[in-house]
Write a structure and sequence with these properties.
The chain has 255 residues and is of the alpha+beta class. It contains 2 helices and 19 strands. Strand 15 and strand 16 form a beta hairpin.
């Protein structure tokens, strides 16, 4: 009976973890460039608990354990916005941004210009180009961002030639699945994972990449996990009732 309680508890812990992952996906359903997560679980054979009196390997009790969280890096839907500072990335690449915690990588191409003329993301992170931060002037107009990330503008109302303001830095990773999330739309590279210049991906001006979370599927998963959690809770309640009943009957036995 004790083993059943422990197994049920381990299952509830993992279901709670999976529910957290699903809830975070749903919360970021409309976050630009967000990549959904999934949970990975594995079987854990207890080195001590046994299903019966025998001590053989076949009687070891099997639990479930939270192994890891994985990132779905598939392409999200590209939505046209018409904003000249918005860009979507077609391909595996990431833009590079400067945060208070260091360089980070993002697919959030909803950019704007801050009070000092720097190009930043919607989260306020400075967008980095091949030569560092990208600076725009108050008189810049007719902004064009080419497929390779080059940013050209016309200076003032009378300018007839274009001026280059920088080139968006685009990187890729050989082991992108090992990137770690550092916020709703940014990733950090752990030790041993280095960015490489991406020459295959392309920018699409006037568009953004929406979250790749599929709302209907996530809601279905949430219902399934909630039901499973309830079923386990019912089983644990029944086990508790059985134990209480056994104790009460033992107490009635004459000494």
């Amino acid at each position: 009976m004790q083993n059943a309680l422990l197994i049920g508890l381990s299952r509830q812990v993992t279901l709670s973890r999976e529910l957290d992952v699903i809830a975070n996906n749903i919360a970021n359903l409309n976050t630009t460039g967000f990549k959904g997560d999934g949970a990975v679980f594995e079987e854990f054979l207890s080195p001590t608990a046994r299903a019966g009196q025998l001590s053989g390997a076949n009687n070891r009790v099997s639990f479930v354990r939270d192994r890891a969280t994985w990132h779905d890096l598939s392409q999200g839907t590209v939505q046209q916005t018409g904003n000249p500072l918005d860009v979507a990335i077609e391909g595996r690449g990431f833009m590079v941004v400067q945060t208070p915690r260091g360089e980070r990588y993002t697919r959030n191409g909803a950019m704007q210009v801050n009070a000092t003329g720097e190009l930043v993301t919607s989260e306020g992170h400075k967008v980095l180009g091949d030569g560092g931060q990208i600076q725009l002037q108050p008189t810049d107009r007719d902004i064009v961002i080419t497929k390779d990330g080059s940013i050209t503008v016309r200076e003032g109302s009378s300018a007839k030639t274009s001026s280059l303001r920088g080139k968006l830095r685009l990187v890729d990773f050989e082991r992108a699945t090992q990137l770690q999330k550092d916020g709703s739309g940014t990733f950090m590279a752990p030790a041993g994972v280095s960015p490489q210049a991406d020459i295959k991906s392309r920018f699409v001006q006037g568009a953004i990449e929406k979250s790749n979370v599929r709302g209907v599927i996530e809601m279905t998963r949430m219902i399934e996990v909630t039901r499973s959690y309830t079923q386990v809770a019912t089983m644990l309640q029944q086990q508790g009732d059985m134990r209480r009943s056994a104790i009460e009957k033992l107490a009635e036995v004459p000494a």
